[in-house]
Design a protein that fits this description.
It catalyses: (1S,2R)-1-C-(indol-3-yl)glycerol 3-phosphate + L-serine = D-glyceraldehyde 3-phosphate + L-tryptophan + H2O. Tetramer of two alpha and two beta chains. The chain is α/β, with parallel strands linked by helices. 40% of the residues lie in helices and 16% in strands. It has a 7-stranded mixed sheet, with helices on both faces. A 4-stranded parallel sheet has the order 8-7-6-9, with helices on both faces. Strands 2-3 form a two-stranded antiparallel ribbon. α2 packs antiparallel against α4, α10 crosses α12 and α15 crosses α16. The longest helix has 18 residues. It is globular.
Length: 454
C-alpha cells in the first residue's frame, strides 16, 4: 500500500531558518531612505521594527539563523506539518505526474502565517515592547499575529482591508477572540486613512493603505512596534521552516521535486516552500523549477516593472527594489485578499530578475475551479489564495500528461478555506467574475513612479 502522508516528529522541526541571501550571487539591492535616496542601515529600522528582525532584514552573510527555543517550543503546537501525496488529484487528472503538497492549513489559525508571527512577537517581547500594530488582507496574518501577541502578552491593533473586513467577518472574530483590536481600513483613526477617505469616500481598501495606517499608529504610540506578514526579508526567512521540513519529507518519499509552486502575494508562503529548494540550485546547480502563481488581477511579477517603490500607499515605508504595479495600484476586490498587493519582496524580485524562477498569472474563476476539484479529490477546501498554487500545479500535471513524461510537483497548501465559504457560495452560484488589468492601467500607474533604477 502506498504512503499518503509523510510525517516528521517534533524533534525534526528545523533548529535554524535558511537565509537565501547569503547564497545569492547577486544580492538584492538595498532599501533606500525615501528622503535622501541613500541605502538604509540596520539602525534606521529600529523605530519601526524590533532590533532582532532589523538585524535579520539586513543580514546578507549568514545562511543559517538559529530559531529561538521559545519559538520552536510554540511551533510544536502544529509543526511539523504533513507532506501529502495528492493521489486523488493525480487519479482524477490521469497524469503521470506525482503531486505532493505541504499542508500548512493545519496550524491553529489555518495558515502558514504563524511561522513568522510567533518569531516577530517573541522578539518584540524580548525587547520590552508592549504594543504592536499590523495590517491584514484576508485576515490570515492578522489572525496569526493575534494568537502570537496573546502567547507573548502583547497588545495588538490590526488594520484589516475594508473589503475583507466585510467579506470575512469570521476571520475578524478570530482576531477579536485572541484579544486583538480590529479596525476596517481605510479608517478615520489615522492621517493616512482620513486622506484616502476624503479623496475616495467609497474606497474598499488595499494592503498598501492598511500598511500605511498600521505604520503611522506604530510610530505615534509609545513602546509600540510594527510587524509585517510578508514582503520583507526577515518574514521570508521565518517561513523557510516549511521548505526545510519538506526537503526531509521528499527524501522520505524517495523523490525530489522537478517543480516547486507557491501562490504569490508579497512572497511569504512562496519563499517558505521554495527557498530551501532554490538553495540546491544556487549552491549545487540542481535542476529545479520554481513557480510563483499570482492573480491575473494583480500581476506584478508577470506584468510589473522592476523599480524602487514604496511598500505602502501613503509612502511611509522605505523604498524597496521590487517588481511593482505602482504603490497607487488599486487591485480588484477578488476573494484572494492575501494576494491583493502591488509589489513583490526584494529577494523574490532579484531572483525573478536573474531568471532563477518563473511566474504565472491565474484568473479568479480558474482558481475556484481548481479549488473545488482539489476539495473533491483530497477532502480539503483550500483558501482562495492557495488555490492559485493548485491551479498552477494542475497545469503542470496536465503538461506532463501531454508530454507523456513523469514529473514530480510540490506545492504549498498555504491555508484552508473554511472561513472563506462566502467566496465559494458566490462561485457556486455563478456570481464571481474574472478581473484582468488593462495594459493602459498598468502603464498609467507605472508612469507615476520615480525611476530610480535607470
Amino acid at each position: 500500500m502506498s504512503t499518503k502522508k509523510f510525517l516528521l516528529q517534533e524533534q525534526d522541526i528545523p533548529t535554524s531558518w535558511y537565509n537565501i541571501v547569503a547564497d545569492m550571487k547577486t544580492k538584492p539591492l538595498p532599501l533606500l531612505n525615501p528622503q535622501t535616496k541613500q541605502p538604509m542601515k540596520e539602525e534606521d529600522l529600529y523605530p519601526l521594527f524590533s532590533k532582532a528582525v532589523s538585524h535579520q532584514e539586513m543580514n546578507t552573510t549568514d545562511a543559517w539563523i538559529e530559531i529561538p527555543e521559545e519559538v520552536r517550543e510554540l511551533y510544536k503546537v502544529w509543526r511539523p506539518t504533513p507532506l501529502v501525496r495528492a493521489t486523488g488529484l493525480e487519479k482524477m487528472l490521469d497524469t503521470p505526474a506525482h503531486i505532493y503538497f505541504k499542508n500548512e492549513s493545519v496550524s491553529p489559525i489555518g495558515s502558514h502565517k504563524l511561522n513568522s508571527a510567533l518569531a516577530q512577537a517573541y522578539y518584540c517581547k524580548k525587547e520590552g515592547v508592549t504594543n504592536i500594530t499590523t495590517e491584514t488582507g484576508a485576515g490570515q496574518w492578522g489572525a496569526a499575529l493575534s494568537y502570537a501577541a496573546k502567547a507573548f502578552g502583547l497588545e495588538l491593533a490590526v488594520y484589516m482591508v475594508k473589503v475583507s473586513y466585510h467579506q470575512k467577518p469570521y476571520r475578524r472574530s478570530i482576531m477579536q477572540t485572541f484579544g486583538a483590536q480590529v479596525i476596517a481600513s481605510p479608517s478615520m483613526s489615522t492621517k493616512a486613512g482620513r486622506k484616502i477617505l476624503t479623496d475616495h469616500p467609497n474606497y474598499q481598501g488595499s494592503l498598501g493603505t492598511a500598511i500605511s495606517e498600521a505604520v503611522e499608529l506604530a510610530m505615534q504610540t509609545p513602546n509600540c512596534k510594527y510587524a509585517l506578514g510578508s514582503v520583507l526579508n526577515h518574514v521570508m526567512l521565518h517561513q523557510t521552516v516549511i521548505g526545510l521540513e519538506a526537503e526531509k519529507q521528499m527524501e522520505m518519499a524517495g523523490e525530489y521535486p522537478d517543480v516547486v509552486i507557491g501562490c504569490f502575494g508579497g512572497g511569504s508562503n512562496f519563499s517558505g516552500i521554495t527557498f530551501p529548494f532554490l538553495r540546491h540550485k544556487l549552491t549545487e546547480g540542481k535542476d529545479v523549477r520554481v513557480i510563483a502563481a499570482e492573480p491575473a488581477s494583480c500581476p506584478k511579477l508577470t506584468r510589473g516593472q522592476f523599480q524602487y517603490d514604496f511598500g505602502d500607499e501613503a509612502g511611509y515605508t522605505p523604498l524597496l527594489p521590487m517588481f511593482t504595479l505602482g504603490h497607487n495600484f488599486a487591485p480588484a476586490n477578488i476573494h484572494a485578499g492575501g494576494l491583493r498587493y502591488h509589489g513583490a519582496g526584494s529577494i523574490v524580485s532579484q531572483l525573478m530578475k536573474d531568471k532563477l524562477m518563473d511566474a504565472v498569472d491565474i484568473k479568479q474563476l480558474d482558481t475556484f475551479k481548481a479549488a473545488t476539484l482539489f476539495a473533491q479529490c483530497e477532502g480539503i477546501i483550500p483558501a482562495p489564495e492557495s488555490s492559485h498554487a493548485i491551479a498552477a500545479a494542475i497545469q503542470e500535471a496536465e503538461q506532463a500528461k501531454i508530454e507523456g513524461k513523469p514529473r514530480t510537483i510540490l506545492f504549498n497548501l498555504s491555508g484552508h478555506g473554511l472561513i472563506d465559504m462566502a467566496a465559494y457560495d458566490q462561485y457556486l452560484a455563478g456570481d464571481l467574475t474574472n478581473y484582468e488589468v488593462t495594459d493602459e492601467d498598468v502603464a498609467k500607474n507605472l508612469a507615476e513612479l520615480e525611476k530610480i533604477i535607470k
